[in-house]
Amino acid sequence: MQPLASLSRLYRFNDRLIDLTTEGFSDDDWLHRPSRRGGNHAYWILGHLAHSRRGILRGLGRSVPTVPWEEHFKRGSKPGEGMDGPAPAELKGDFHSSGETLANRIEEITPEEAAAPYVRKVPDGSQDVAGAMHFMLWHEAGHLGQLTLLRRAVGKPGLA
Q: Which tens digits make up the pLDDT trace of 38-57?
């Protein structure tokens, strides 16, 4: 039995959701801030999510080369005024390709692997692979929610 199979389906769902949420975004839409005081724009969120998926794969033992743009989107980084890395289409492509690899890897996780210690520190304190995968899915969903709000803020129709 594969203990995390349902997570695999949810990560795949997030692949579809990111496309729907950002459909039709212009360069200005990608850089729209949620308030006058700043906040994460859609471009930073997309890069952060692509970077996060790469980190999850590394934590699951996959060899994923580090690319220069990851530095702009790591935990604790701040959104720049412009697009500080690849075009959104390239970041989406990376998000999707990492997502497919991630979903496939999650489907392979055995009960023993799920209970094994996760090699990276997880913000919620999870220490095993299963807990880390659940937290990272929650993290991703939270940022997708931000994208949904930004979509409405730039005048695009809602998803539901």
A: 899 999 999 999 999 999 99
